[in-house]
Design brief:
The chain is mostly helical. It contains eight helices and no strands. The longest helix is centred in the N-terminal third of the chain and has 30 residues, at 36-65.
Length: 205
């Protein structure tokens, strides 16, 4: 049994919306800087991340309303988000090496039942996104944003740690949602600042 309430479930949509804004801003600002295949990876990744959060929040809301326990929405969260971060990280890394050929193959043995592969994908992808955005910030002479993206990475890791623990209690859920919201606010602060500084028209090379 989960101690979900309707206000708690509705609040879970807040970080999802914050990430959606960050994702749209980055897609608009980086579209003309990426090869088309790299942008396709990046866009697909951000959409996956959004859908992972949205479906999990929807699961909580349906559960809190007593409508149903559509657990598959919760089960999908980790693999969908992990693949999303990996694709987004791959796309933004290729932006700096557009002439390099890149290929991605991700597979897990049929008998594998652990989660460390997904966690590794998420850490690698998120690390690549935050590192590349830090490089962009440095080139745009917005070095203070490097700290913002570094803190964003740390908070995301904290969120991942909390998500790996028992989150059936109300207190655990509020803590996880609070940390998640903080991470999304940091990401939006960094991305929004780059957007305001003219990232769309800035020449990275």
């Amino acid at each position: 049994m989960y101690e979900f309430t309707v206000p708690m479930a509705l609040f879970d949509f807040v970080p999802v919306i914050l990430f959606a804004v960050s994702g749209v801003l980055l897609q608009r600002d980086l579209y003309n800087k990426m090869p088309k295949y790299a942008f396709a990876c990046f866009a697909a990744g951000t959409v996956n991340i959004f859908m992972a959060g949205f479906l999990k929040a929807l699961w909580k809301l349906l559960y809190a309303l007593g409508a149903c326990d559509f657990a598959v929405f919760n089960t999908m969260f980790l693999p969908l988000q992990s693949l999303g971060f990996l694709l987004a990280g791959l796309g933004i890394v290729i932006m700096f090496f557009p002439k390099k050929k890149a290929a991605l193959a991700v597979a897990a043995p049929p008998v594998f039942k652990g989660t460390f592969v997904f966690i590794g994908m998420m850490v690698a992808g998120l690390g690549a996104v935050c590192a590349c955005l830090s490089v962009v910030a440095a080139r745009m002479k917005k070095k203070g944003l490097i700290v913002v993206f570094a803190l964003c990475f740390v908070v995301y890791m904290g969120m991942g740690y909390l998500g790996s623990r028992d989150s059936s209690s109300a207190a655990a859920n509020w803590l996880e949602q609070g940390v998640n919201t903080l991470g999304q606010l940091l990401l939006l602060l960094g991305v929004g600042s780059l957007h305001k500084a003219g990232l769309r028209d800035f020449k990275l090379s």
